[in-house]
Write a sequence for this structure.
C-alpha cells in the first residue's frame, strides 16, 4: 500500500510502498477515507516533538471504513463507517484503570509512535474504533479525533461551566471547535483571539466575540470587554510564549489558563502578581480520552458542533502536497484544516 512517511526529522515526508498491515484477533483493519493534517504533524516533521521509530507514517486524525475485523471483535464489522481514537493503550496499567489512558505506561499514539493514517490502510485494536454516524462526513469524523476532541478535553480540564467567560487564543482547527464547544458547555461569552481576519470572521459566525491581536493588545481588549474582570478560562492553542503570557494575564480571579499548544520555547510569568494574588491556575491539557468521544460524536451528529466550514481543503495522498500544507502550517497560514482523502 502507499503511505506518506517521515523518514528523517527536519526533512520532507516521502511516499513509500509498504505492506498492508496484518491484524490480530482483537484488531481492526480500516481503509482510510480521511486523514487530517494537524499542526502537530508539522511539529513532528520539524523535531519539536519526538517521533519514533523512523520511518513512520504520520497522521493521527483518521476516519474510514472497516475492511477486516479480527475473530474476537464484536463491536464493529466490515463495511462500518468509523473514526479512530489516536491513543493505542494497554487497558490494564494504573493510568488506564483510572481513565487517564493518555498516560498509559505502554501507550502509543497513531502517527507518532506507530503508523498513522497518511496511508491507504491502518490497523489498531478494536477498542479504539468508534462508529461514525451517516450524518457526519468522513472529513469531519477525522478532524474530530484530534482538533475537536483535544478542545473538548481542554474545556473539561478548564472546568468550564454555565455562565463562564472563555477566551480562545488561536482559532485554527482546534480553536473553531473550542469556540463552539465552549458555548455548548454553557459559556456566556467566548472571545476568539487571532491575527487572521478570515478565521476571526468564521469564529464570529459561531457566536464568538472576535479580537484581532494584530490590531490591538488582546489582553487590554479582553479587560475592556469584561469591565476589568478578565475571563474565567483562557485556552492557549498556539504554544507561542507571547500568547501563553496573554492567556495568563487575561485571567479573572480564580481563572484557569489551559495550555494546549505545543512549543519547545520557555515562557516566563510573575507567580505572585499573575497567579497567587488571584488564586489563578495554569493547567496542562494532554490529548483526550476515549470515554469523551461518544459525547463529542453525538454533538456533531446533532449539529451542535459544525465542522462544515472548518475543513477548508482536501488533498490527495501525495507527499509533495502534504509537505506543502505543512509548510503553510509552520508559517501559521490561513488554512483551518486540510484533510487527505486517499
Amino acid at each position: 500500500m502507499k503511505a506518506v512517511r517521515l523518514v528523517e526529522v527536519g526533512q520532507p515526508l516521502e511516499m513509500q510502498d509498504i505492506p498492508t498491515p496484518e491484524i490480530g484477533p482483537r484488531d481492526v483493519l480500516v481503509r482510510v477515507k480521511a486523514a487530517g493534517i494537524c499542526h502537530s504533524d508539522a511539529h513532528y516533521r520539524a523535531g519539536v516533538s519526538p517521533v519514533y521509530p523512523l520511518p513512520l507514517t504520520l497522521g493521527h486524525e483518521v476516519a474510514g471504513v472497516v475492511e477486516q475485523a479480527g475473530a474476537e471483535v464484536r463491536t464493529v464489522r466490515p463495511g462500518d463507517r468509523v473514526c479512530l481514537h489516536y491513543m493505542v493503550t494497554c487497558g490494564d496499567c494504573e493510568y488506564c484503570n483510572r481513565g487517564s489512558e493518555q498516560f498509559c505506561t505502554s501507550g502509543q499514539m497513531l502517527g507518532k509512535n506507530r503508523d498513522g493514517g497518511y496511508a491507504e490502510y491502518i490497523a489498531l485494536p478494536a477498542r479504539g474504533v468508534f462508529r461514525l454516524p451517516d450524518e457526519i462526513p468522513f472529513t469531519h469524523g477525522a478532524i474530530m479525533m484530534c482538533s475537536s476532541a483535544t478542545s473538548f478535553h481542554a474545556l473539561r480540564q478548564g472546568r468550564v461551566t454555565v455562565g463562564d467567560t472563555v477566551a480562545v487564543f488561536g482559532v485554527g482547527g482546534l480553536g473553531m471547535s473550542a469556540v463552539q464547544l465552549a458555548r455548548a458547555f454553557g459559556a456566556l461569552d467566548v472571545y476568539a483571539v487571532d491575527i487572521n481576519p478570515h478565521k476571526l470572521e468564521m469564529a464570529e459566525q459561531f457566536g464568538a466575540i472576535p479580537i484581532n491581536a494584530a490590531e490591538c493588545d488582546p489582553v487590554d481588549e479582553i479587560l475592556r470587554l469584561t469591565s476589568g474582570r478578565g475571563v474565567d478560562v483562557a485556552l492557549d492553542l498556539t504554544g507561542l510564549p507571547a500568547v501563553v503570557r496573554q492567556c495568563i494575564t487575561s485571567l479573572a480571579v480564580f481563572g484557569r489558563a489551559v495550555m494546549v499548544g505545543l512549543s519547545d520555547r520557555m515562557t516566563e510569568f510573575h507567580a505572585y502578581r499573575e497567579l497567587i494574588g488571584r488564586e489563578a491556575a495554569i493547567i496542562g491539557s494532554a490529548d483526550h480520552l476515549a470515554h469523551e468521544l461518544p459525547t463529542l460524536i453525538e454533538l456533531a451528529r446533532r449539529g451542535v458542533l459544525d465542522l462544515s466550514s472548518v475543513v477548508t481543503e482536501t488533498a490527495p495522498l501525495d507527499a509533495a502536497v502534504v509537505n506543502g500544507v505543512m509548510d503553510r502550517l509552520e508559517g501559521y497560514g490561513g488554512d483551518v484544516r486540510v484533510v487527505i482523502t486517499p
